[in-house]
């Protein structure tokens, strides 16, 4: 007999870091707040919804954010506080699900198929969890409810902030077809641009493509795109999921030959990776830079240091030092990537705590 559909909830805190700061400092409420540094080479770790109305987003350079919203209020990060609130929220999750897969400090999947709390529906479970989060932390969360992880993740973004959305069994394929391709989880900026060049702008456009076409143009990602265009995702909620690395890469329309431009691109990629590390609350000690040349030959350079990299500027410097090791260039560069790995939670906690000590 066919198994009944799973019941998956994706909980996503609303502007988590910034909302914690607004909660703890009433003077910040209603103002465009970002967590980060206003320094020329700073990067935004989180933005309040008031800031987002101006187009400010996490991982954006601070200089760009200030041009979009000159009245931005910058506050420094307090990771020890964010981690404490995250533990409180995950304690709430544990009352309703045995299978919980954290994605970062502020979001997680919950498999409530087993109905641990004896609540009639997954929709009611999500509403009760959100109410408890608001009551016990003073913060709001949004939720997506569906029969697989991909659809639940997409649904949690539908009624943000402080809302929820259900994609019921039998409705997933139709729901996906209404979405712009840039909203798809797992489709980054470069892939979205490539899809648009191929005439794929929406889920409906993606659905029209054959598996062979998607494999031809997107390689091993082709079957994934083919499946999600049909609302298919068989991945289980994995409580033991441990992220081993975080990376970002960019393919350029025109091959790069200017070494100063290459260093600047590596710095920008480093900022994106560091923004993820800040959001996840975990920091690595190994940096890897990937360089793919115009002839598709590839070079990688890595360096490991004694402790976790908890400062954006240090990650930038390490990345730039590594890419300089391939200079002078043998030919143009078509792709650059930066990855951080060797995550160590205990070392991260010790390092962050040390930086918080008075001097």
UniProtKB/TrEMBL annotation:
One of its GO terms (cellular component) is cytosol. Its cofactor is Mg(2+). Binds 2 magnesium ions per subunit. GO terms for molecular function: damaged DNA binding; DNA-directed DNA polymerase activity; magnesium ion binding. It catalyses: DNA(n) + a 2'-deoxyribonucleoside 5'-triphosphate = DNA(n+1) + diphosphate. It is found in: Cytoplasm. Its main location: cytoplasm. InterPro entries: DNA/RNA_pol_sf, DNA_pol_Y-fam_lit_finger_sf, DNA_pol_Y-fam_little_finger, DNA_polymerase-Y, DNApol_IV, IMS_HHH_1, Rev_trsase/Diguanyl_cyclase, UmuC. Its EC number is 2.7.7.7. Gene3D superfamilies: 3.30.70.270, 3.40.1170.60, 5' to 3' exonuclease, C-terminal subdomain, DNA polymerase, Y-family, little finger domain. One of its GO terms (biological process) is SOS response. Keywords: Cytoplasm, DNA damage, DNA repair, DNA replication, DNA-binding, DNA-directed DNA polymerase, Magnesium, Metal-binding, Mutator protein, Nucleotidyltransferase, Transferase. The record marks 17 as: Substrate discrimination. The active site is at 107. Residues 8-188 form the UmuC domain. Mg(2+) binds at residues 12, 106. Belongs to the DNA polymerase type-Y family. Poorly processive, error-prone DNA polymerase involved in untargeted mutagenesis. Copies undamaged DNA at stalled replication forks, which arise in vivo from mismatched or misaligned primer ends. These misaligned primers can be extended by PolIV. Exhibits no 3'-5' exonuclease (proofreading) activity. May be involved in translesional synthesis, in conjunction with the beta clamp from PolIII. Monomer. PANTHER family: DNA POLYMERASE KAPPA (PTHR11076:SF33), DNA REPAIR POLYMERASE UMUC / TRANSFERASE FAMILY MEMBER (PTHR11076). This is DNA polymerase IV. It comes from Caulobacter flavus. The gene is dinB.
